[in-house]
TrEMBL record:
This protein's record includes keyword Flavoprotein: no
Keywords, in A-Z order: Membrane, Transmembrane, Transmembrane helix
Domain of life: Bacteria
Organism whose genome encodes this protein: Luteimonas lutimaris
Protein name as catalogued: Thiol-disulfide oxidoreductase DCC family protein
A Pfam family of this chain: DCC1-like
Transmembrane annotation, as ranges: 12-31
Length: 151
C-alpha cells in the first residue's frame, strides 16, 4: 500500500511512534473510542509511516512530531491532537477550548513531552501490533498484515 494524503479523504490517518509506550497507548485509546472507524494508523517505523512523514517535511529518522492527515490536510503537534479529539465527537469536542492557548505555548509543551516520551513512559523493542480485529486499520509497507497477538 502506498498511502498518500488522498487516502485521508474517507477518514483520517494518524502516524504514530510505534515503539513509544505513550504513543501506543494513544492508539489503543483511539481504537476504543473511534466507533465510526474513521481513523487509520501508520507506525513511524514502518515504510508507510516513513513515507507519510517524509512527504510532509518531517524527518522519519528523528520523529519528534505527531502527524494527522484528514480531509482538511496535514496537521502536526498540538493542532493534530486537538483535531483527533474533535473527530471523536461528543464530549471530546471540548478539546477545541485548547485552541484558546497560543499555539506556540501548546507546541512547546507538546515538544517537551515528545522529547522525553521514552524516558517518562518507556520504549518497546518492537512496534505496537494491532489486535486481530483492528489490523485492517493499520497501513503498512506490506500488502498483508499478518495476525499478531494482543499487547
Amino acid at each position: 500500500m502506498n498511502p498518500t494524503p488522498a487516502d485521508a479523504a474517507d477518514g483520517a490517518i494518524v502516524v504514530f511512534d510505534g515503539v513509544c509506550v505513550l504513543c501506543s497507548g494513544w492508539v489503543r485509546f483511539l481504537l476504543r473510542r473511534d466507533r465510526a472507524r474513521r481513523f487509520r494508523f501508520a507506525a513511524m517505523q514502518d515504510d508507510a509511516g516513513r513515507r507519510l512523514l517524509a512527504a510532509h517535511g518531517l524527518d522519519p529518522d528523528d520523529p519528534m512530531s505527531f502527524l494527522l492527515l484528514d480531509a482538511s490536510g496535514a496537521r502536526t503537534d498540538s493542532d493534530a491532537i486537538i483535531a483527533v479529539l474533535m473527530h471523536l465527537g461528543g464530549p471530546w469536542r471540548a478539546a477545541r477550548a485548547l485552541r484558546l492557548l497560543p499555539r506556540r505555548l501548546r507546541d512547546r509543551l507538546y515538544r517537551a513531552l515528545a522529547r522525553n516520551r521514552y524516558r517518562w513512559f518507556g520504549r518497546r523493542d518492537a512496534c505496537y501490533l494491532p489486535p486481530d480485529d483492528e489490523r485492517d486499520r493499520f497501513l503498512t509497507g506490506d500488502a498483508v498484515v499478518t495476525a499478531r497477538p494482543r499487547q
